[in-house]
Specification:
Blueprint lengths: L1 H5 L20 E7 L5 E7 L7 E3 L5 E4 L16 H8 L2 H16 L7
Length: 113
């Protein structure tokens, strides 16, 4: 019985909802140009904040046509684990901790639990 009721419905291949009364969100087309002269357009929502640069995927980074120039703000240097450790402890404190741990590894001091 279940075979007969599902036959011909093509489950998963078609939506049973209709598109009547559905309006897509308003969009704006933004044009970008690459350094080699390649131009491309990207659709954005009218409410979206449009970036000054966009990667075209094939020709590199494109700059927005008619928009302000991208800010060349200096990038923050990457903070390493060592930098963060030095923010919490001085070099002398780290040397004392290292000496203690090495003494424990050598068996000179019993480990504390």
């Amino acid at each position: 019985m279940s075979e007969r009721s599902l036959r011909g419905t093509q489950l998963g291949s078609r939506s049973l909802e209709s598109e009547v009364g559905v309006e897509p969100a308003p969009r704006q087309m933004v044009e970008y140009v690459c350094e080699d002269g390649h131009t491309f357009t990207v659709p954005f929502s009218v409410e979206a904040e449009v970036p000054a640069t966009w990667d075209s995927g094939t020709h590199g980074i494109g700059t927005r046509v008619g928009g302000e120039e991208p800010d060349d703000e200096p990038e923050k240097p990457v903070r390493t684990h060592w930098d963060m450790l030095l923010e919490r402890r001085s070099f002398e404190e780290l040397q004392v901790l290292l000496d203690e741990r090495l003494a424990i590894r050598r068996g000179e001091i019993p480990p504390q639990v």
